[in-house]
Amino acid sequence: MQALKEKILAEGQVIGETVLKVDSFLNHQVDPKFTMEIGRELAGRFRNEGVTKVFTVEASGIAVAVAVGLHLDVPVVFAKKKKASTQDAGFYYSGVHSYTRQESVNIYVSSKYLNSNDVVLIIDDFLALGEALRGMVDIVKQAGARLAGVGIVIEKAFQKGGEALRLEGVRIESLAAIKKMSTGNIEFC
Amino acid sequence: MQALKEKILAEGQVIGETVLKVDSFLNHQVDPKFTMEIGRELAGRFRNEGVTKVFTVEASGIAVAVAVGLHLDVPVVFAKKKKASTQDAGFYYSGVHSYTRQESVNIYVSSKYLNSNDVVLIIDDFLALGEALRGMVDIVKQAGARLAGVGIVIEKAFQKGGEALRLEGVRIESLAAIKKMSTGNIEFC
Would you say the pTM of this structure is higher than 0.80? Predict the structure, then answer.
């Protein structure tokens, strides 16, 4: 998606070798119109898959996921990083390790909102090592749902999470995939 | 907002005396089209206030905030509950106590995204005791920005958070305000 690549080049900030900061439009400050464009583009790539649910994890995937859900006209479910105090008995959960934060958390989804009749499109803002994605794929499996695929805004391809999941047969569509980057330099695949 | 009240009556689940579960359309599963309707309605109430930023806190306020931002055509900023590993020096933070979870967290906003030129509309899914809202109002003050007001999807009016803030001069618009509730019974103001 050309407009996204241009926005990353204009506003993205590379920190160290692995961190790309795009908090001016994607995951701290959000550009609503641009988010809708991103949603339209991702929805278009899965238009014919019979998707019944868009699935993401809080927090920074939510805006894009809602935009995709709007364009596909299906509900969005977001996994929570804490079990709600009001969570009833039925839920799926999976462990997710964050290398950035050096911590592991469980993510939770009520079994009311994903089941074996669902065709699920997973959406997230970033794909790096793929840890969050693996947790979500695991929950889709637990629910007995079919995974239509994964839509990602920015994939850091050099971190190999996407490569590993594609080898396992998961369809992943990234709107911008970064081959390598360093301070002041971002090279797309 | 009549459609919202009907949806709360149809799908809401009252647990104990203070918890209203609306996770089928608002804060776990999200109905994107309905979220856009909510956004349009809240945006309309602040249309003439010269709002430059919509402000919320992760996670469940994000979907509605983006819908409001889209209708007002301004950026959305969401406060984070953890300081980002990539957070630079300049940020505001404020402490928020959650009575539901019996814990206190800080919420963080980069000073790049709120400043003294901003006119801020705070958006959240729920208003109960007003703790999260007070944290956000505090951050708007720290930024030297003007607070246009607060837009809330569901206010549990019997918990008095809104009443206290209105007495302090904050304009709060709630799309559905609940006077009292118990199992199987919800009474709007």
Answer: yes
**C-alpha–C-alpha distance, residues B63 and B125, integer Å:** 9
- Are A95 and A70 in contact by the 8 Å Cβ rule? The answer is no
pLDDT, tens digit (0-9, with 9 covering 90-100), for A100-122: 778 899 999 999 999 999 999 99
**Is B85's CB within 8 Å of A101's CB?**
yes
Eight-class DSSP state of A145: -
> Which of B119, B118, B185, B129 has the alpha carbon at shortest distance from B152?
B129
pLDDT tens across B23-55, in order?
Answer: 999 999 999 999 999 999 999 999 999 999 999
**Residue A47: alpha-carbon gap to chain centroid:** 17
CA within 13 Å, CB half, A114 = 32
Please give the ipTM for the structure prediction: 0.96
Size of interface A-B (CB pairs under 8 A): 117
Q: For residues B154 and B125, is the Cβ–Cβ distance under 8 A?
A: yes
Report cis status (omega within 30 of 0) of the bond before B59.
Answer: yes
DSSP designation for A80: B
Minimum-distance CB partner of B30 among A15, A60, A78: A78
Cα A177-B57-A77 angle, rounded to 5 deg: 60
Chain position carrying tokens 């407009």: A3
Asked if A70 is an interface residue toward chain B (Cβ–Cβ < 8 A), one would say yes
Tell which residue, B64, B72, B63, B65, has the closest CA to residue B44.
B72
CA angle A167, A93, A119 (to 5 degrees): 55
3-state secondary structure of A37: helix
Q: Kindly give the pairing relationship between strand B29-30 and strand B185-188.
A: unpaired
Neighbouring residues of A132: CB distance < 8 A, sequence distance ≥ 6: A57, A96, A98, A107, A124
Residue closest to B13 by CA, chosen among B27, B3, B31: B27
Whether the CB-CB separation of A95 and A117 falls below 8 Å is answered with no
Distance CA B173, CA B152 (A): 6
List Cα–Cα distances, B103 to B18, B83, B184, in angstroms. Answer: 17, 17, 29
